Thiol reductant ABC exporter, CydD subunit (Longilinea arvoryzae), 599 residues
Amino acid sequence: MVNALTRARASGTIIRMNIDPRLLRQARIAHTALLLTVIFGLAGGLLVLAQASSLSAVIARVFIGKQSLAQVIPLLRWLLAVFILRAGVVLGGEVAANGVAVRVKGSLRELLLEKLIRLGPAYQARQESGELVASALQGVESLDAYFSQFLPQLVLAAMIPLAVLVAVFPRDLLSGAVLLLTAPLIPIFMILIGRLSEALTTRQFTALKRMSAFFLDTLQGLTTLKALGQSHNRAARISEVSECYRRATMGVLQTTFLSALVLELVGTLSTAIVAVEIGLRLMYGRLGFEQALFILIVAPEFYLPLRTLGLRFHAGMSGVAAARRIFEILDTPETDARSQSGNVYRSARLTGSWIDQPVCFESVTYYYPGREEAVLKDISFCIQPGELVALVGRSGAGKSTLAHLLLGFIQPTGGKIRAGHQRMQDIPIEDWRRQIAWVGQQPVLFQGSLVDNLRIAKDDASLEEIQRAAEQAGLAEVVAALPSGWDTRIGDGGVGLSGGQAQRLALARAFLRDAPLLILDEPTAHLDPVQEMALADVTRRLCVDRTVLVIAHRLQTVREADNILVLEDGHLVEMGQHDDLLAQGGAYARLLRAGEGGE
Ligand SMILES: Nc1ncnc2c1ncn2[C@@H]1O[C@H](COP(=O)(O)OP(=O)(O)OP(=O)(O)O)[C@@H](O)[C@H]1O
């Protein structure tokens, strides 16, 4: 009874240490494969007994009963069938467990990606990209061992020893008691070593994340590092972080080997105790040969799953360490992100309606998480349908933050954004964004063909629509000059585009999207005067018949604006047209004089 309690307590501790309930909940999505893993585990336990019983029967009949080969042939056939079946069951169990691993990894990756998309650019800006990539790729991958090795072994470690005990007790009470007494030794050692390895595995995963973040940073900033002559310093830092990861990995390997040694020792000693106890009683004729042989054969099988569980415990550990970070991301409150469902208005009522109304900011305030000062303070203005509104201000005044609020990447901390009488937060975010085209300062090129890169703006666009958008943006002549035309691969691993060409691609995306509200961050760098004028022309055409909010860097754009919003330190300090604001001689005039925001 005491032992049963000890065992229960010991396994309870293991459960707390290595069986994350949220990970188990994930496994439920692959419930058929999980059920199959358990069934195969159970069948494995029964086959171990069948194998031991037929093997001991064959040996006892041949050596003690002096039976001929012909007499034991049926038993040998049965033994062969059991061998084959056992191999099949082991294979089936592994296939099923791998099925669980593949499903869970796929689902976790999807969940992570959806969550990161919902958390939006504001969250990602606060995280290290390399660390997020490491958690989403290596982190999820390290769960493979958890689901394909540790969990199935846990099932086997529960099923096989139990089946062995059930078979041994009726045959020999003393041997059953010895097995029951020695069984907890392995889990106890596992827990002791597991405590040590938990800290080491967490340290290893942290080192891996740091190394990934560092590598990604280095790759992204290679041009800057080269230009500043910092590549040698960086190489030294890379070897430092790699060394840190190596040390952490060696630490984990050391404990793995140590625990393998201890578990082997405990398993072998326990088997030896059973063997000695059986041997002595066999010698004194207190136990039958077949019975003794059966127990001797099943004794190692009794400890084997527990020993293997001890070894796979480490594989499970890395999974748990990675899962902690994955669930931390999944549990991040979506204070900034907009819910994609549960909105009070149906999409059908909204399509095309809200955008015909003025879009108004009413006393909008915004604080970035963790920052004490608001970046936008009590901002109120309206954009009338068809208006070109220019947003100007010094660097850091809050222009991009305001554009991100309008795009729904972040939510106002105070105040409201309205479209007519509807609050933005009541409009499904997908519907809201469907009416918006966004052209940023640094167009993003995705890996793929040119045509794929344009279709991002409209998945079902026909080639004619794409061609028309490209002509409007002045991209058609760039495409015509490329040997593979629209099929030219760009982005990672493909050809690059110049700053001006990439900008045209971004404008072509906006033409293709054909949304009524355009949010535009004017490019400032990398363009020669001719390119700049050509792009300004394209941009002007894009603005026709659209409502436009432009983060303006060119004086010409600001002059043409129906309304200019001047941001200073998060406050909307002035609002009006160019001539009036200039005449006022306030913040706008100072900005123009300083050559920022207007030129
Ligand atoms: N993700 C963020 N987390 C915390 N603070 C941020 C974040 N993004 C921007 N900020 C801060 O908010 C302030 C306003 O930034 P914002 O990017 O909106 O300015 P901006 O006017 O667009 O500047 P620029 O013209 O240089 O792009 C800055 O002080 C900036 O440091």
About this structure: Residues 69-126 form the longest helix (58 residues). The domain at 2-330 is CATH 1.20.1560.10 (ABC transporter transmembrane region fold). The CA atoms of residues 203 and 248 lie 6 Å apart.
